[in-house]
Each structure stands twice: as C-alpha cells, then as structure tokens.
C-alpha cells in the first residue's frame, strides 16, 4: 500500500507531502491543475520512463520520495532479496532528478538502479487509463491475464518445464547428428591416422629419451675415432711401443761394449715401456666403453624421426600423440555407435514431445474453461455499467508451440448484438473502453492483491447512472483489493471515495504552483458541488452534492 508521497521541485510543485490510506482515494480538480503531475512524479520514483523535463523551473534538482507498507507475504520482498536489500515492513523509495539529466535512486537508503525500481513497481503499483497500452489493452498480456484469472500458474510452470525438456532433447539430437555427420566426413582420415598411431605407439617422454640417446651415440662415434688413432699411435709396430722396444733392443745389444754409459738410458726406457703399456691398456679400455652398434644409432634415429614427422602431420607436440590417439579412438567409437545413440535421442525427443503435447493440451483445456468463466464474469460486470447489450469474448486460437503453450489469447468485444467483434481499443468508444477496462479489472482483482491500483480519468465520457456504476465498481475494487487511487472529473465517482483531495493551481508572485488539499466533509460538499455546477456553486448543486455523499 502507498503510505505517503513527498514531492519537491517537480514541474509546478515546489513542496508537496501527501499521506494515503487504504480504500478508495480520489483526486479531483480542474483540468491543468496538476493531477497528472502527481502521477508523473509517482512514475518517476518508480523508475517508469516518462517526460524528461520534470525539474521545476529555477530549481537545480527535483526529488520524489514514496513510502509503501509491505506485509510479510508481499511480492516486493522477492525483488528486494534479488537486489541484496534487507527486508523491511516499510519500503522507502527516493529518486532525484537533476537539471543536467542525471538521476539517482535509493531504496531504504541504499543506492539502486532504475531496473530494480521498475521491477519493484510491477509489484507495487498498477496504472490504468484510456491509453492503457501497457496493461489490459495490450494483447500480449491477455494470455497472462487469463492464466492469472484461471489460477493456472502451476499448469503453465509444467508446460514451461516440458518445453525446456523438449528443447533440450532437440538440441541434443541436433548436436549428435552434427557430430556424426562431421565424423563420417573424416572417417577415412580417422581410421588411417588411428592405424599409423597404433603401429608407431609413441609413448609420453619417448621423444626426449630417443633424442638424448642419439646425441650420446653421435658423440661416442666422434670420440672413438680419436681414441682409436691414439691407440694405434701408442701400440706395437709403428706405434710408440714398437719404436721404444726397437730402441731398447738396440741399446741392450751394445751395452756391454759401452760400459755403464747406457745403463741410465736402458733403465729409463724400461720404465717408459711399463708406463706406456699402462697408457695403452687405459686407451683400450676406453675404446671398449665407447664401442656402439651403428645399427642401433640408425634404429634410434629412424624412430625419433618417425615420431616427430607424425607429430608435425597432426600439428601436435610429440608427447601429445598418445592423447591425440585417444581422441581419434573416441571419435571412431562414437562413429561406430553413433546410429545407436541417435536412435536413443530420437526416442527421447519423441517422449519429450509427447509430454509437452499432453501438458500443453491440458493447459489449453484449462484456458478454455477459464475463458468461459471470465466471459460470464465480464457479462455480469458490464450490465451494471449500462453495457448489458455488449458481448465480451475471450478468443483462444492455436499458435506456434512455445514455453507458455500453443494458445494465442485475445480479449474482444462486440458493443451490440450482431455487431462484429474486435479488439477492445479498436471497437469500443472512449467511454465504453473505460467501462470495459474497469469491468475487466474487477474480474481480475483477486490476482492483484497487494497492488496500489491507480485509475487516471477512467470515468471520462460517462455520467449519471453510468458514472455512479463506475464509482461503485471502483469502490468495490478498493474494498476487495486494498487501495485504489482515482483521478476523476465525475462527481458520482468522487462522492464514493473514502478519502478525497483537491488539486488546484495557484499563482504566487510570478510562479505558478500546484497545491493538493485534503478535504473534510464540508469541503467535499463544496468540491463536488463545483464539479456539478462549475465555478459558481448554486444551492441546487450543494443539495445534489449532499445527496451524492449520502
């Protein structure tokens, strides 16, 4: 429920504080007095998109604060939870509009976005008027309104779930068919690649191991050649050992003739031959250690080059060949069992479609039954509004299946028997349209509990007994729905209000301002008399006003 509205420096309002109450609240006043400004200001604080030039001339910024009372089960709490704003039994919305065009909003003193305000507004306020293209006149809302009237939320949720399952099944089948088609296009390649990889069977880390072995054997080959030459240079025959042996034999052969002169040389040669033998032995041992099979080097190089060539062919790292082989095996396995999978998915799709058809069919039947009840309820409401000859029909036609079923719902009307039916806003005149909207709202009121309902001159174009019937329907809405705000020019409607304000325009200095005054019993007589007779209030008008007020 809207508790209060505080407006500062908006259009021709410098400061206005209003406190609203449950029941039927009426706002009256001459045309141009500023009644629409109140609605513009309320729409502004609720985040509605409207006129941009709201700041009062001469002011730097305008500000609107609205306070709502929220019971524990109010739908606004879910929006607050989603926005991370703590729950409270009082909701304070404040929004500032600056002359530069920037806007700032707060919800319970926390900064908030316009999107959050608009989400809250859907749970707080419902505006109806002759240009009600956002609500009851918008054909896109008719299916939702019928579902709300029929209490079909659970069945709609069931259809949505069935539609999601059907969509998921269709997507799964399409994806599987696409994968299978792609796999078939590359089947020859996959099988050839799988054969190559299986034959080579590369192992993780094998590339690095083979490369290290190859480098070691290549190095051993180069060292072995030099060590062999060293062994030949040290060995017998033409080597150092052979030459030193020849030298020793020559010296020993003439030693007895040289006395002791050759003894040191002979001893040194003997020692040298011993050490030379040790060196030769060490070189031979080194040769044994460095010995390798050239065929092994060739085999290592062949496998190393084969692994690297296959890795380049498939654009993967050598160590990833094993994983790549696994991917190919998976694709081939999917290809081999693809038809079976697709058959299963087609069966699942068929089951999902049958489930959707069943749920959608049941929802269509429920909508047809709800439409019959709504048409009867509308017929009962139109008669007191002096439209007993009008025929309201809820038309249901089949449309493309979707998450809300396969029904298109349109509210149509024929203003007289035998006249063609058509959309509300195409067939009905202004006054008739107002009454149709009011009757429809009365029928749907039980689904709008907790909302503050605002009717902007919905009684325009009607008078007398019809206006009285409109007022009584508005009062019924207020009594059943909690709170109704009505902007009206009808004295019959105004007289039925539980609370009454007069909006008037005043000139103070060079500034035109709008003032809103709550009316007591005596003031109400004067205001309703003015609405009856104009600026000059006659005694007859006063008497009529008192009669209307009862």
Mind explaining what this structure looks like?
It is elongated, with a radius of gyration of 49 Å. The model has no long low-confidence stretch (mean pLDDT 86). It has 17 helices and 15 strands. The chain has 550 residues and is α/β, with parallel strands linked by helices. The chain has a domain at 190-331. Helix 7 packs antiparallel against helix 9 (263-290), helix 11 crosses helix 13 (430-444) and helix 13 packs parallel to helix 14. A six-stranded antiparallel sheet has the order 2-1-4-5-6-7, covered by helices on one side. A six-stranded mixed sheet has the order 8-12-13-3-14-15. It has a three-stranded antiparallel sheet with strand order 9-10-11.
Describe the structure concisely for a colleague.
The chain is an alpha/beta fold and 550 residues long. 56% of the residues lie in helices and 19% in strands. It has a domain at 190-331.
| Strand runs, count | 15
Distance between the termini: 27 Å
Rg, nearest Å: 49 Å
Across the major sheet, the strand order is: 2-1-4-5-6-7
Structural class: alpha/beta
Query: What sort of overall outline do the alpha carbons produce when their principal axes are compared?
Result: elongated
Number of helices: 17
Q: What is the makeup of the main sheet?
A: 6 strands, antiparallel
Mean pLDDT score:
86
Helical coverage, percent range: 55-70%
Runs with pLDDT <50, length 5+? none
Residues in β-strands, percent: 15-25%
